[in-house]
Design a protein that fits this description.
Shape: elongated
Largest sheet: 6 strands, mixed, barrel
Length: about 260
């Protein structure tokens, strides 16, 4: 009887532990790809981008960023994801820096170039998994003259300073909210918005990290409910005060 109770207790603890771990984003396995670079030595050419983060210096992403090929970008759903990238020294000892790695955040899209073959200029053509990295990040793992190097990558948890940020753009009856500085999984699965005078309303992805609502929310404090792509949900109650205006950014104290 005692053995049965102990076994049942162990199983219950195991189930509870598994459930807890399922809500914590963990690194993936390693996958082969290739990487090039763009944006100049100061990464000034990487600003803006298809995720909509704008000035990557002021939004905290810096120069450790990359544009993802179609196979990785997932129509913008991968914006904010973090990847650890290692140059595959065994495959290219001439242009790889041995043992070096860098962790980047996905901030842009590398479009396909169907006029060029996949192995000679069409690096971002489907179905290739490719990273067009900010030059300073790329030079952490590769030698400049190489231009393109084979890499190994894994998706890893994002580590960010401070809380999640909300930039409210748009106009009356059209709130376009750019959500940035997301830790953990980094990428967002769904967002809901709530005014101080409304109930919760689902938002839709407009493009990249920009989510839209078609409600009239002027003069109301705004709350958000975010679920990241690993299934973790958090509520950001009243993070945007009722005095908000279009074009303003508000930082929360909450993080994934």
């Amino acid at each position: 009887m005692a053995k049965t109770l102990l076994l049942a207790s162990a199983m219950a603890l195991s189930i509870c532990y598994s459930f807890t771990k399922a809500n914590a984003f963990t690194a993936s396995g390693w996958t082969k790809a290739h990487a090039t670079f763009y944006g100049g030595s100061d990464a000034s050419g990487t600003m803006g981008g298809a995720c909509g983060y704008g000035n990557l210096y002021s939004t905290g992403y810096g120069t450790r960023t990359a544009a993802l090929s179609t196979a990785l970008f997932n129509d913008g759903a991968s914006c904010g994801q973090c990847y650890k990238i290692i140059c595959d020294y065994k495959s290219d000892s001439k242009w790889c820096i041995k043992g070096a790695s860098v962790t980047i955040t996905a901030t842009n899209f590398c479009p396909p170039n169907f006029a060029l073959p996949n192995n000679n200029g069409g690096w971002c053509n489907p179905p290739l998994q490719h990273f067009d990295m900010a030059q300073p990040a790329w030079e952490k793992i590769g030698i400049y003259k190489g231009g393109i190097v084979p890499v190994l990558f894994q998706r890893v948890p994002c580590k960010k300073h401070g809380g999640v940020r909300f930039t409210v753009n748009g106009r009356d009856y059209f709130e376009l909210v750019m959500i940035s500085n997301v830790a953990g999984a980094g990428s967002i699965q769904s967002v809901s918005i709530k005014g101080s005078k409304t109930s919760w309303m689902a938002m839709s992805r407009n493009w990249g990290a920009n989510w839209q609502s078609n409600a009239y929310l002027n003069g109301q404090s705004l709350s958000f409910k975010i679920t990241t792509t690993d299934g973790v949900s958090k509520e950001f109650d009243g993070v945007v005060p009722s005095s908000w205006g279009f074009g303003q950014t508000f930082s929360s104290s909450l993080q994934f």
